[in-house]
Amino acid sequence: MDDPSSTSKGKRKRGRKHKAAADNHAPASPVAAAAAAAADNPAPAAAGRRGRKSRRHEAPADADGSRPPSPPRRGEAKPVANGGGDAVVEAGGPVGWDEVARVVPSMDAVVKVFCVHTEPNFSLPWQRKRQYSSSSSGFIIGGRRVLTNAHSVEHYTQVKLKKRGSDTKYLATVLAIGTECDIALLTVDDDEFWEGVLPVEFGSLPALQDAVTVVGYPIGGDTISVTSGVVSRIEILSYVHGSTELLGLQIDAAINSGNSGGPAFNDRGKCVGIAFQSLKHEDAENIGYVIPTPVIMHFIQDYEKSGEYTGFPILGIEWQKMENPDLRKAMGMKPDQKGVRVRRVEPTAPESGCLQPSDIILSFDGIDIANDGTVPFRHGERIGFSYLVSQKYTGEKALVKVLRNSKVHEFKIKLATHKRLVAAHVKGRPPSYYIVAGFVFAAVSVPYLRSEYGKDYEYDAPVKLLVKHLHAMAQSPDEQLVVVSQVLVADINIGYEEIVNTQVLAFNGQPVKNLKNLVSMVENCKDEFLKFDLEYDQIVVLETKTAKAATQDILTTHCIPSAMSDDLKT
Q1: Are 200 and 213 in contact (CB under 8 A)?
Q2: Please, are residues 423 and 431 in contact by the beta-carbon 8 Å criterion?
Q3: Where is the composition biased (Low complexity) (predicted)?
Q4: Class of domain 433-568 (CATH, top level)
């Protein structure tokens, strides 16, 4: 089977909108809001701009590459039959065995990835969801390693690989998962797996209209499949699974469920990217997205340098375009100066020590930034300057030239990864929770919102939580958004039963910094009452002695093993 064989259905909780059944082999996909084209665990729906919601549809189940090729005319590129699809080789004369040998090893390096997932249950954080299986694609690279998508092995409990033409599945070990770039690195201990297979070689970033061939194991059959197209766009894309923006390729080759993690080859048999998501929209057809080689090499070299994945750094600011001439004049810019204005600086970012609001960033590492925030890319092309930042590694320094009060300053800035107030991922850790007197406290994250409100959480979640998710900045590295997730009904909490997903602002007059801070204050409280100040000017008051005494009976009633998660016990 190419796809997960089971679906999980959400249950109606506390009067919320009923969740749609999750299609395990067709996760949600991409740029501006489509669904990750993988055969695996459902990925988050893309974060589209509010007010511009459009309906997305899953990819069709039929796979391309099943039609017999028409005979090529003299002088055209010749297709070479290669077990389930066609790999294109350069035109010239009759196809020789040397050309076949050049393409076939690349095909043989493409493997099928089988994964068993067990996701955390963020709505009931003391347990996990029912396990399910998925299949996707991957390919062998140098150093006895295999590349696939991060969402293909997210929350994995077991990963197995099967080579083309083999009937054996080999147990794989996950070496690293790059959530932001949606890439995972695997290996296999069994020496037999590596016999007779040449690793895939990487090519350079393709140009527009360059031919690409996507190879993988999508839905529609069990054997390897090949679809072909051309590069139609190169720009900074929204990576749905990673909730980040990195360089990406748009192609017109079909990328269906199960293609995720498979390589995209150029017409010379070199890998130029990894298929990872597609756009499903009523007005669009055959729009697929590929992770290009600069992002792949950054991930691999990051792992080789650090022994682990450290992430893609960012410039911790929000910025504004400077295209209006009056705005430029008011900010003291000369006619020959261009740049972008700093709106806000992340308090937890290293840049907060030197950059200030209303600074004009003129250049990054010696490359001038235009008034629209772009920099030169290749001949006739421009790209967002965040591309320059993403090419750096965590901990590296960059030279930033800034205009402040009509004077030019230069700063050496140490780059770091993004610290969000509402985390986009939990990266394999079980969710934290704390229960007292039936009140379930949790820290808000994107997976939590998706668990509570479904893939359309950006429209269905409480407005106050969404505003903080989209616009609030963490004031310290360990700050969290703590909420009362639900109230497990008991005599002690009569009258509070309808409190759901409401932020906890303070406890007994002390601000709540994070969940661990709240646990410490409640557990060590010697006052007569426990008083929680909530959002919307609500308060919850409980008698300390009776509240703590009632907690154990409530846990027993609901079969909950502990009043807090393991990470809060230390």
Answers
A1: no
A2: no
A3: 23-47
A4: alpha beta
The pLDDT tens digits of the residues spanning 273-286 come to 999 988 877 666 77
Q: How far apart are CA 566 and CA 570, in angstroms?
A: 7
Beta carbons within 8 Å of 355's beta carbon, 6+ residues apart: 317, 342, 345, 361, 400, 402, 411, 413
CA distance 455 to 465: 16
- The amino acid occupying position 226 is V
At 280 the pLDDT is 74
Range(s) of the chain covered by CATH 2.30.42.10: 317-415
Question: Span 368-383, mean pLDDT?
Answer: 93
Q: Is 184 helix (H, G, I), strand (E, B) or coil?
A: strand
Chain centroid offset of residue 133 CA: 20
| Chain segment 476-510, per-residue pLDDT in tens | 999 999 999 999 999 999 999 999 999 999 999 99
Report the C-alpha gap between 178 and 385 in whole angstroms. Answer: 22
- pLDDT(76) > 90: no
Q: Considering only CA atoms, which of 88, 85, 83, 93 is closest in space to residue 103?
A: 88
Give the tens place of pLDDT for each residue, 195-204.
Answer: 989 999 999 9
569/11: higher pLDDT: 569
DSSP codes of every residue in 133-153:
EEEEEEEEETTTEEEE-GGGS
CA atoms within 13 A on the CB side of 539: 8
- As a whole number, the mean pLDDT across the chain is 83
Closest to 550 measured CA to CA, from 496, 495, 497, 488: 488
What pTM does this model have? 0.79
CATH superfamily of 317-415: PDZ domain (2.30.42.10)
**Start-end ranges of CATH 3.20.190.20 in the chain?**
433-568
Closest CA to 507 of 473, 482, 477: 482
Confidence of residue 215 (pLDDT cuts 50, 70, 90): very high
> In angstroms, rounded to a whole number, what is the distance separating the alpha carbons of residues 95 and 91?
8
DSSP letters of 507-535? ETTEE--SHHHHHHHHHT--SSEEEEEEG
Cβ within 8 Å of residue 336, ≥6 positions away: none
Q: Which amino acid is at 488?
A: L
CATH class in words for 97-310: mainly beta
Helix-, strand-, coil-residue percentages of the chain, each rounded to 5? 20, 35, 50
Q: Write out the E strands in 106-201.
A: 110-117, 132-141, 145-148, 156-163, 169-178, 183-188
Distance CA 205, CA 233 (A): 12
Residues noted as catalytic: 151, 182, 260
Give the list of residues 6+ apart from residue 92 with CB closer than 8 angstroms, or none: none
User: pLDDT tens, 228-260?
Assistant: 999 999 999 999 888 889 999 999 988 888 889
CB 430 within 8 A of CB 561: no
